Amino acid sequence: MRGEDMEKFYSKELIEELRDIQDTYGYIPEEQIVKIATKKNIPKAHLYGVISFYSMLYLEPTGKYIIRLCNSVSCRLNNSTEILRSIKEFLKIENGGTTKDKKFTLEVAECLGHCGEGPVMMINGQVYSFLTPEEAIKILKSLQ
Ligand code: FES
Fold first, then answer.
1. What angle do CA 49, 55, 56 make, to 5 degrees?
2. N or C: which end of the chain has fewer CB within 10 A?
């Protein structure tokens, strides 16, 4: 693929447009993908590729709160696996799932950039660090 084609497919403008759609709908609906593909004259498959590549873009509706729990090495050494187990049990969902009431979506994430504060989770951009399973559940219960 030539440089100018790469730019068309993966431009900052395209990502911003996708993020705007994400903000409006809570995910990227199929009809919006078709619209962008037509407008920019790029294959839908490339848009799906871009959306899949960026973990903050979704093809399905998500919960009001997106829980991103780090399970990379440093957090795992600090018991993030136990926190994940507690959250899954409490919300009755698996990784990638959304609760029936559409309140929570759970995602196991790669390093969230707070390795010295693990275990770490992020909920809609808010970072929670030095977690225990009990604290994680208390945080979830506090969210309206
Ligand atoms: S390893 Fe968890 S925040 Fe970096």
1. 110
2. C
Per the document, the length of the chain is 144
Summarised one tens digit per residue, pLDDT across range 111-140 is: 999 999 999 999 998 999 999 999 999 999
Residue to mutate (ligand 1; options 80, 108, 115; most atoms within 8 A of CB): 115
Q: The whole model's pTM is what? A: 0.80
77 pLDDT band, cuts 50/70/90, is: very high
Tokens 């009809």 correspond to 31
